[in-house]
Write a structure and sequence with these properties.
Length: 327
């Protein structure tokens, strides 16, 4: 059995700034009412920066902002600027549904954000409206273009693969990379929250090997390139002669727990060791209730404990909605 994970092996902290979202994607939120986290329990920007400073002390150099939808958090570019001002930050990135990027891309770039990842699970406008329960695909593409104009090079498109929903589109997504400088990443469907119930996961799951097979049936064998940039878990390939790239994130068929290099901070202040399980540490009481001279020591202990919780292999089902964890 492997020994405890070394804190120095963790390089990325995913920071959820809100559990709220302007979409209600079928795999992320229930259709009926979801109780949002009360605003007063959300970590403030100053509290998030305090956690980030503690993370930097442990060798973490990369921060990714997530949600919910991070851009529904008021004044998000200010948080980006605060994080960018910290010493030794190598990379600041964000995962977004893209609907508000057209408005915020220039301010995010000016504040110091380095990279953008946009979630997009179909290229069909009507189907997109159904998957997101109301989203506008044209607005998302406007956001992607606005990000490129603002200076975000090589954006990533995340597509959650779902049998019976978008499995006929994998080759179309791959075709985007022939002429566009972007990376399309296919993410295996994960059993989190409601998707773990009622057999939905078993109905929707489609493995990397099948996704890849459908792409190669049209375009021929993919060409290996390199591991994903940005400390990510994806293994990246190209179509022959393509400008962009194709990635696969295969947490279910090919768990990468042994090399997982990230922790997650929820919007209300839990430091989580794993998307699925593995334990979490409450940071909000440390930040809000302990004296200033005590907090650095306790935050240090929280990071050490959380890394020790990381499982050798994650469990099969997660216990919380994706929007509550931060993806």
């Amino acid at each position: 059995m492997a020994g405890p994970r070394d804190i120095r092996a963790v390089r990325t902290l995913r920071i959820s700034v809100t559990d709220r979202c302007n979409f209600r994607c079928v795999y992320c939120m229930p259709e009926d009412k979801l109780d949002w986290v009360p605003r007063e329990t959300l970590l403030s920007f100053e509290e998030i920066v305090e956690v980030a400073r503690a993370a930097l002390a442990h060798g973490i150099r990369s921060f990714k902002l997530t949600g919910g939808e991070p851009l529904v958090r008021h004044d998000l570019p200010r948080l980006v600027a605060m994080l960018r001002a910290l010493p030794d930050v190598d990379e600041l990135s964000m995962t977004t549904n893209g609907a508000l990027l057209g408005e915020f891309a220039p301010a995010l770039k000016a504040a110091g954000l380095d990279r953008i990842t946009v979630s997009m699970d179909t290229l069909d406008g009507d189907k997109f409206h159904d998957i997101t329960r109301g989203g506008d695909l044209t607005a998302v593409w406007r956001g992607v273009r606005a990000a490129q104009v603002a200076g975000f090079g090589h954006p990533k498109i995340n597509c959650v693969a779902m049998r019976g929903i978008n499995d006929e589109e994998f080759a179309e997504f791959a075709a985007l990379t022939l002429t566009k400088d972007l990376t399309v990443r296919f993410i295996e469907y994960m059993p989190l929250g409601r998707t773990a119930l009622g057999g939905e996961y078993e109905e929707r799951f489609i493995s990397e090997s099948e996704i890849r097979g459908r792409i190669e049936a049209r375009f021929g064998r993919l060409v290996a390139t390199m591991k994903d940039t940005g400390h990510g878990p994806a293994i990246v390939w190209r179509l022959p002669g393509a400008v962009g790239r194709i990635g696969f994130i295969s947490a279910m068929s090919k768990p990468f727990c042994e090399t997982c290099n990230r922790l997650r901070l929820t919007a209300e202040g839990q430091l989580r060791s794993c998307l699925f399980d593995g334990g979490e540490v409450e940071l909000r009481p440390i930040i809000r209730d302990m004296a200033g001279e005590t907090r650095p020591t306790m935050l240090h202990r929280a990071f050490v404990d959380c890394v020790a919780f990381k499982p050798e292999v994650h469990s099969y089902f997660g216990n919380r909605q994706m929007s509550q964890i931060g993806g």
